[in-house]
Amino acid sequence: MDGGRMRESFIYLCNPVGGDIVSVLNARYVLTGSSKESVSCVETYGNVTKTIVRSYPFSLKYICGQTFTQRTRVVRDAVEACTWLHAIDIVESVWD
After folding, report:
1. Ordered DSSP codes for 61-82
2. Alpha-carbon gap, residue 89 to 9, rounded angstroms
3. Regarding beta strands 58-64 and 70-75, do their DSSP bridges make them parallel or antiparallel, or are they unpaired?
4. What is the DSSP code (8-state) at residue 8?
5. Bridge-based pairing state of the strands 48-56 and 37-45
6. Whole-number pLDDT of residue 33
7. Helix H or strand E encompassing 42
8. Does residue 93 have a pLDDT over 80?
9. 6 pLDDT band (50/70/90 cuts)?
10. How far is it, in rounded angstroms, from Cα 96 to Cα 79?
11. How far is CA 66 from CA 21, 50, 79, 88, in A?
């Protein structure tokens, strides 16, 4: 912002799966030993589309964009897992 790098990340979902989380700050995911499922996610960013295998379930840790309180949620749905993991990779600049 204004030429400086922001330390916080912000994700806003226009049409979220499950419908209950719309905007989050500093989203992180935590895989556990129970993260035994995998899904092939077809992801697009800019003009690049690729398939990435993602693991789930996982804990999504974030700051709620509406109340600014810390939250944790377990993501068990494959489509929702693809959405969150793709968004986190984009805001962390690790999706290429």
Report:
1. EEEETTT--EEEEEE--HHHHH
2. 11
3. antiparallel
4. S
5. antiparallel
6. 81
7. strand 37-45
8. yes
9. low
10. 20
11. 9, 32, 23, 19
Residue with tokens 């398939």: 51
Q: What secondary structure letter does DSSP report for 15?
A: S
Query: What is the average pLDDT score of the chain?
Result: 87
Tokens of 64: 């709620």
Which residues does 63 contact at the CB level (< 8 Å), separation at least 6?
A: 24, 25, 26, 69, 70, 71
Is a pLDDT exceeding 60 seen at residue 1? no
pTM for the full model? 0.84
CB atoms within 10 A of CB 70: 11
Kindly list the domain boundaries of the chain, sorted by start residue.
Answer: 10-91
Q: What is d(CA 90, CA 96) in angstroms, rounded to the nearest whole number?
A: 8
